[in-house]
Amino acid sequence: MKLLILDAGHCLSLALAREANRRGDTVLQIEEGVTVSPEHLDEVAPDALVIPPLAQPISADPAAVTAHAEAVEACMDACRQSDVPLVWCVSDQLYEDGAEAPIDEHVIPAPRDESLQRLILTGDRIREHHARHLIVRLGPLFALEGTGAWLTELLDCLLTGQEVRAAEDVIFCPTSADAAAMALIGMLQQQACGANAWGAYHLAGTEPVSAYTFTSVVRTQLATRLEGLGETADLGRLVALNHHHDQPLRRVLNCRRVLDVFGVHQKPWRLELGRLLDTWCQAHKAQGGSA
Asked: How far apart are CA 206 and CA 33, in angstroms?
């Protein structure tokens, strides 16, 4: 299977590259840009075009959101002309108001924010005009490298003693970029073998948690590992924020369909976080340590 991946520096693109290198049945071509022409698609002839998500669309500049939406639609047009399946990954933040129960795949987000509405319009156009598509909604991605990696930024802030502010009343499912990449390639392998299961899917880690609790776990595990290396670090302190005073905003994705259709199990974020911190500590020790 051959995949064309856009936005080379994105944390999900880098994770897809790592996963493809680990396997013998997947070849990737990764492009720096965020759009592709029909001519280039014809030249590459991939089994699918994969577009990583726009990170934090709720807080992104409206112009950046519009540019992303327009780029995705241009890619959709190219895919239609070249008859190439399109995979568009999107943030769970499109479910702006969350829901009390886990959100099923068939529920199309209906945000009030105009920028987010622009992304919904793009999704509607994909559903209407290009049947062979996967719209994959992801929880907040975390990784050690790449755009939107989150964990890297968090570690940098903690190690430099900066204050970290995180909401304790926003509940979501942190999602390992590596786990998402593994699942995406597995899904696309099945599609290439004739599964023909196009549509929208949710892909997120298990165990809903607040942003504050997630950052607290990162801080605690980082401190423990540094101590194990014989180091002491004055890590930045955490500050809990509260934006929803009536009740927490729950943005939890129900990932049952991806399990039923493709057999993809979600990976616990705590296990993935521990693995990544172990990797970080090995690199840190190899570089001579000292936080």
From this structure: 32
